[in-house]
Amino acid sequence: MIRMRHAAEATRPSLVESAYEALKAAIRNNVFAPGYQGSEQEIALQLGMSRTPVHEAIIRLQEEGLVRVLPRRGVVVCALSPEDMREIYEVIVALETAAAALIAEMPADARAPIAAELDAVNAAMEAALARDDLVAWAEADGRFHQLLVARSGNARLARLFGTIMDQSHRARMLTLRLRPRPTVSVEEHRGIVAAIRHGAAEEAHARAKAHRLRARQQLLPLLASLGMRHL
Amino acid sequence: MIRMRHAAEATRPSLVESAYEALKAAIRNNVFAPGYQGSEQEIALQLGMSRTPVHEAIIRLQEEGLVRVLPRRGVVVCALSPEDMREIYEVIVALETAAAALIAEMPADARAPIAAELDAVNAAMEAALARDDLVAWAEADGRFHQLLVARSGNARLARLFGTIMDQSHRARMLTLRLRPRPTVSVEEHRGIVAAIRHGAAEEAHARAKAHRLRARQQLLPLLASLGMRHL
DNA sequence: AAGCCCCAGCTTGCATGGAAGCTGGGGCCG
DNA sequence: CGGCCCCAGCTTCCATGCAAGCTGGGGCTT
């Protein structure tokens, strides 16, 4: 047995890490609803650890815009106004269109397998829609967009995209059942993939933008009609 | 004297905050050069505080990609490879072109004062260049780009832009004196402002993109010639 | 002489205690 | 009866102590 002195690559997660993941999941799944206010002590108790790792996890969550800590008062889960959703969509458009263009600018033998991956996910969306399985549809839709940025060859871009999607996850889930059947999405996705496959960067950019703008146009009125500061 | 019970808005900065700012400044100004490895204890001593606030500040810096903490080994200042710089420029292009387009899409009476502000900064750049004051030129150039995203009406976009610019600040400073006299920049900036003033979103987008791509094309070979992992 | 092993020292991870500050409500004063 | 004040309780902030783990070098074995 070789003595591994340098770099144990698969170390067990620290308490900070698990607190971070647990809190993020709780926020995403609405267990901690927006506006929820709690103390680190209380959260630490729930997670079965001391205050320190919870405190440090909350610092990270604050950095990502999911919570805000009010000094000496507690930590609150950030609520999203329609204004926030406008900002978020603008950032999503900026990052995602860039990713689509970057992929389209790759050499053909790099683009092809990526286009195939995207097509596969898109097929899964279509199948879910045929089964009337909206949850599976949303999951596959998320995977499509996540794949798009993950394959852009730009880890920083993918990371920024991830945090902005985390911020808006709740809002998308909320409106999932409210909006009309999303049949256009699959078609628009196909257009994006086609542009990528042909190496048409400008077109990929434009199609990705149009897709997101339409989705946003559908989402914002819904949110506005639901009440201002609610999610 | 009214008793301000709610929300003291101008509270003195916490130790965590000052540690964060001090460390960020030290990294920006190359006091802690990339690859520098130190212990939290040592930094805490230098800043005259305990390990705790330093530890928490480092968590934030790690979240922003400026440092990496190696468990039980210390914290190192991240070095940037040419590959990293490519990623960074791609993100800058994505965010900045979006900002330019957003401003150009505003109503005319909102665009005009912004264009005037941008023109003023641009004039300062030109003046600095006439004086051969490269440092002042770089400072004004940074202000131009920062202003562009700050006036986009999207705080999230501006924040993301700020962190990515923090990551790449050192590299820009390093190459400042190495590259040819930046006379084209002022002209290209004028083009961006003109497109904004006319409300031509597509053109503002394209000009902002071309400007950054040219700058990148100038920067990358310089960095490559300097040595791979150095900054 | 070369290679392995083990240990001393230094590092962060985490727990805990004290301090400072904000909040809300009960009591006091007008 | 109304409004102000003050304080008890809860919160985060920060310091510090202990534990676990990584590193590098000195000494031992072969």
UniProtKB/TrEMBL annotation, chains A, B:
Q: Which PROSITE patterns match?
A: HTH_GNTR (PS50949)
**What keywords is this UniProt entry annotated with?**
DNA-binding, Transcription, Transcription regulation
HTH gntR-type domain location: 13-80
Name listed for the protein in its UniProt record: GntR family transcriptional regulator
